[in-house]
Amino acid sequence: MLSTATIEQVKTHINTAAKELAERRAAGTSGDLLIPELRPTSFEQAFAIQQAVAEIFKASDNNPIAAWKCLVPTAEKTVVAPIYQDDVYQQSTTCPLYPSTKGLARVEPELAFEIARDLPPRSTPYTEAEIDEALGDIRLALELIKSRYHTPSEATHFDALADGLVNQGLWLGPVLNPLADLETSCFELSVDIANGEHQQSDTLQKSAIHPNGFPKAGLYWLVNFLSAQGISLTQGQYVITGSYAGVLDLPLAQVCKFEYGALGQFAVTFTAK
To answer: What is the DSSP letter of 243?
Structure first.
């Protein structure tokens, strides 16, 4: 059993790490990996830092969790991270974000599931049917990507987890095409990038495939994982469950027209914060 002094030291390290990462996120900056004694070495430590960041934003900036990102866990890693209210954009024609070091918008195409009814913590797991009943709209979405580390390739999964898994926000687009029986595990992704009034546009095309195959799989896991941690999913929050095409590097100040196959389409212009 850990001594009281050791427990207090662990809490101090978690809070110190969270304060540093929260300051970087709020300022849109990045820095070195945390000093060794502050770097998490387990999922539990990393998740504790992540949630301490969330408490800082909620308490000091009135900026609560408005969405979550997740994937079905594997033996190698668990993907779960909050997205904050001030960083969620609702179907706006422009999307502000912190550009990459190359001056580009880094985004991931996703589907976002709306929580229409609270799913509070409870002692028994939620069934898939109960979770389905609590859902509202499904939206076409883009996860906005940025690490708070100068060299994210040198960060461990636990470093990244503590920092919110390179998330800097979420752009919510139109509601999924309402036609019944649409295939959501894969689609042909097209991004048409306007290069100016008199220039030919560039088009990026990819076969988009959900990493878990079934896009609700991660959502079903997340609901019961959060419940076990004493954390609610609440009405109005959204959940994204994995990128269909990895990270896309796209230009700023140019209209980008996305087509998610038969699922729907939208246009957005990325601007630098």
So the answer is: -
φ, ψ at 234 (rounded to 5°): -120, 155
Instruction: Please choose, from the candidates 18, 48, 56, the residue with its C-alpha nearest in 3D space to the C-alpha of residue 34.
Output: 18
**Within the chain, how many helices (H) and strands (E) appear?**
5, 13
> pLDDT band for position 150 (50/70/90)?
very high
What letter would DSSP give residue 29? -
- Which string of DSSP letters, residue by residue, matches 129-195? HHHHHTEEEEEEEEEEE--SBS-GGGS-HHHHHHTTTTEEEEEEEEEP---TT---SEEEEEEEE--
DSSP 233: B
Distances (CA, A) of 122 to 118, 126, 179: 12, 8, 34
Cα 42 from chain centroid?
A: 21
> What letter represents residue 174's amino acid?
P
pLDDT at 130: 98
> If you write DSSP's letter for every residue of 79-126 in order, what string do you get?
-EEEEEGGGEEES-SEEEE---TTS-EEEEEEEEEEE-S-B---SSPP
Q: Say whether pLDDT at 200 is over 80.
A: no
Q: What is the pLDDT of residues 103-127, one digit of tens each?
A: 999 999 999 999 999 999 999 999 9
Q: CATH classification of 64-272, choosing from 3.30.300.70, 3.90.850.10, 3.40.50.980, 3.40.710.10?
A: 3.90.850.10
Residue 197 pLDDT class (50, 70, 90 cuts) = low
Question: Residue range 119-146: average pLDDT?
Answer: 98
What was the pLDDT predicted at 198? 46
